[in-house]
């Protein structure tokens, strides 16, 4: 029988941003096919990560000699915000995430903070279940906005995802919205009050 490698946690600063980011990207890669709005984690630079770590700190988790997880926290006005908790897929289910969470909570408590907050996508129920087991409760729900700079960009995004654009406007040939059989997944496009949908958008819908 092989002994389980010991878990060790180390707090680090911005100088370790590269390894923290590397672990985050490896752990978050599987979410790309799940999230309808991609996680901003995927385009964070090393400088971005270092800036966030500077607001609080980060933790690295090792099993034996292998670094398998990371997390970071920010000390805000009235709470600590814990984010980007990352464990490499082969090492999940071994208590690494829970240990990192507890360590960051304790570090924040030692600094005088009594409340910890996290943000989790509703499309990741396993992550939600983890945090609930750790004593967290849902307090707010938010919509994720995805901005497109122009009509063509919106149409390209919708086409790539197989999502039809449905124009909402009072135009010749229009049908009453309540009588139209809307697809289960679609984007309703509303024009500006007064001018309505632009000619370009009318062509794209």
Distance between the termini: 63 Å
Q: Structural class of the helices, strands and pairings?
A: alpha/beta
Beta strand count: 7
- Mean pLDDT across every amino acid position: 91
Q: Bin the helical content.
A: 25-40%
Number of helices: 6
Rounded to an integer, what's the Rg over CA atoms?
A: 22 Å
Strand order of the largest sheet: 1-2-3-4-5
Ranges with pLDDT <50 over ≥5 residues?
Answer: none
Q: Topology as H/E string?
A: EHHEEEHEHHEEH
Protein architecture, described:
With 205 residues, this protein is of the alpha/beta class. It is built from six helices and seven strands, in the order E-H-H-E-E-E-H-E-H-H-E-E-H. The chain has helices at 17-28, 46-53, 96-110, 125-133, 151-160, 199-204; strands spanning 7-12, 56-63, 66-75, 80-87, 116-117, 165-168, 187-190. A five-stranded mixed sheet has the order 1-2-3-4-5. The chain is elongated and about 70 Å long. The mean pLDDT is 91.
């Amino acid at each position: 029988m092989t002994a389980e490698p010991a878990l060790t946690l180390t707090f680090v600063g911005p100088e370790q941003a590269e390894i923290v980011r590397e672990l985050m990207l490896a752990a978050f890669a599987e979410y790309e096919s799940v999230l309808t709005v991609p996680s901003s984690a995927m385009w964070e630079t090393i400088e971005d990560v270092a800036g966030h770590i500077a607001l609080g700190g980060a933790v690295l988790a090792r099993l034996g000699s292998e670094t398998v997880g990371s997390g970071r926290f920010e000390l805000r006005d009235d709470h600590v915000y814990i984010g980007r908790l990352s464990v490499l897929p082969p090492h999940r289910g071994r208590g690494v995430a829970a240990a990192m969470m507890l360590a960051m909570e304790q570090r924040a408590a030692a600094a005088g903070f009594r409340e910890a907050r996290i943000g989790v996508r509703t499309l990741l129920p396993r992550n939600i279940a983890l945090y609930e087991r750790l004593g967290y409760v849902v307090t707010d729900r938010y919509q994720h906005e995805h901005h497109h700079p122009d009509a063509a960009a919106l149409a390209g995004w919708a086409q790539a995802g197989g999502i039809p654009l449905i124009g909402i406007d009072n135009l010749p040939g229009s049908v009453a919205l309540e009588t139209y059989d809307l697809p289960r997944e679609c984007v309703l496009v509303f024009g500006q009050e007064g001018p309505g949908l632009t000619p370009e958008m009318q062509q794209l819908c």
